[in-house]
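Local shape tokens

___
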Amino acid sequence: MDIYTPLKKHFGFSKFKGLQEDVIKSILENNNTFAIMPTGGGKSLCYQLPAIMKEGTAIVISPLIALMKNQVDAIRGISEHRGVAHVLNSSLNKSEIAQVKNDIEVGITKLLYVAPESLIKKEYVDFLKKQTISFVAIDEAHCISEWGHDFRPEYRNLKYIIEQIDNVPVIGLTATATEKVQEDILKTLGITNAKTFKASFNRPNLFYEVRPKTKDVEKDIIRFVKKRIGKSGIIYCLSRKKVEEIAQVLQVNNIKAVPYHAGLDAKTRTKHQDMFLMEDCDVVVATIAFGMGIDKPDVRYVIHHDIPKSLESYYQETGRAGRDDGEGYCLAFYAYKDIEKLEKFMANKPVAEQEVGHALLQEVVGYAETSMSRRKYLLHYFGEDFDDINGDGAEMDDNTKNPKKKHEAKENVIKLLSVVRDTKEKYKPKDIIKAIVGEENALLNSHKTHLQSFFGCGKDKNSSYWMALLRQVLVVNFIRKEIEQYGVVKLTKKGDNYLSNPVSFMMSEDHVYSQEPTSDIITNEASSGVASDEKLVRFLKDLRKKVAVKLNVPPFAVFQDPSLDDMALKYPITIEELTKVHGVGEGKARKFGKEFIVLISKYVDDNDIIRPDDLIVKSTGVNSGLKLYIIQNTDRKLPLIDIAASKGLTMTQLIKEMEAIIYSGTKLNINYSINDLLDEDQQEDIYEYFMEADTDKIQDAFDEFDGEYDEEELRLMRIKFINEVAN
């Protein structure tokens, strides 16, 4: 059968990509077919071409409305009949549904895209029973498997619904599936006899990098994106709130960015998706829902602000970069506390689901912390061997580009494999490591492992060393994880042979990503934690002292220490730039700023300093609504406790917000509230203390008054003092 003529006629291609030709022939021969092809491998053509060539209508089951719309538009673009492709889902009105049914009945429609939820409806099933159906294709088939990264319960019943419609071939397609997931898909769809086609998961043009996620992650993202202005990118976040925040931060820093998440209405989502496709914006900041089936070949980078819940998700999302085989940069920010957060989300789920979730998360941790070739690690996860020296794309990751030193670990590999064998292959990695370092727990004790001679045989090294070694031994297939038992480790034949005939084994230790302390606002008790120009800080402190003496106020009432540190990091030379410094708002910048920017300008010129423009990241004023609310309601003399309660804040959180307002130079009158707490003498007592003090630290004030006033009273009085003296 000639399939090249229709390929050229309908799609304009003269040759197929990868496994496309084999998959299409299998479908045209009416076989049940299963195709595992990485994102960018051209999955959709595998069912689109046979659907156009075969008699009748092909049903394509797809999880996302955005994905369907995108594909329907593309198919309509290659046909003179608008009705060649239709969507049948909850977004249609009655007359649109009637049009779809009519086009199917008269034989115009070759592809009908439906969501699984729509296919359950009896009226649709009854209608489709009477039509000529060519085959049923299930896109994103990993959604069927509870072991998959995107499990959807409604997918589990597809087999029975398809049987009701017609006895037609079933085609499953996915861009990511471990062997366990593949097995599950075939079984659930009842197509264990399917002809299976599996492409390589290697995307040699993608560069993988993992960076520690610090409190400066937004600056890191802006620096990265600004170096790629005009190029398309996707930034993934796990929460809608974070999507909105990052999109706003990018926008105020003159980057064309739009948010995309399920909380936006359909019209806005469609508009933002189209802006991205039509290059009216450079960056989409999205939850994982964005990008499935979005056919934009020139996405140049994918950034993960939050590490995903599984390596399948990560692989699929990074796979949206460089689909035209051009540059594709995959940058992920990693902090272990994000993993802990994801584990907390699982706490209320059934135990079996928790086990699966934890097993998948640990694979993500392994990938993020490993110091070996990330490509080799990733491909091993999908059951594929990769030659990390001569393989295609071998140099394309941060670890291979900047390799860690390796050292001989032969004796320790023997210890590790022996413990797996001698504990009768019944433990998961963390328990094997506890046995090696000699750390007892209930499980080990129940099997009397703590009494064995090998218990603690590796206590000269720490747990993270042994975990790094275990991961590297896993990737070279000396051991394997038994997925049915949620990751219990078994010895392989290769591992057994190694124990009989050990040879050199060079290992590199995992990265340690420590999380820097973070603070939402910088008051005098916090410090910016970034190295600033110490010489300039000294000059700024001298100037602050002079200004304070002239105005007869304490130095901290002019600018706080963290503000001076930040000035010596950003070198602001205009009043506008000064407002971007921690704890300096417009009021304070205008009131005190002139002398400071004159000093900094001269210092920059005298010392030939290149100012780091990209460090001056504008903040979005995400909390400006809250700040405005506080200012308006303190003006109305509303009790502070009521202001806090109406915004779901504790009193401590409200005081923190008020401190941020007054420290940036905005006036805030809370005298009415303080008058209810402290009498005139007490207020004068504390006021005088702050006037004479070298510092406004609350602990110092607390010590001075020997506990006579509590922290809340002192903090409120400090607000009153700064408000009256400095603002």
